[in-house]
Prior knowledge:
By secondary structure, the chain is mainly α. It contains 3 helices and no strands. 59% of the residues lie in helices and 0% in strands. Helix 1 (11-23) crosses helix 2 (28-45). The longest helix has 18 residues, at 28-45. It is elongated and about 70 Å long.
Amino acid sequence: MSALLIKNMPPPLHDRLRQRAVVNRRSMNREVIAILERELERSAATELPPPVKTLKPISGEWTVQIIRNARDGKR
Length: 75
């Protein structure tokens, strides 16, 4: 089992965490795990979908033509 050490936790945050653990009848450790699990699941549900349209790779010929057009003042 992995461990996590949280250093320099502000006292007001520590107090809120302790109060929340008491309300939920959990240890502070279990309360932190519950919070992390909930937040990580929530963020997984809001991940962006893959692009709708895939982009075509840029060819060397196209790049050369763009550079020539820019150099010659063409659009």
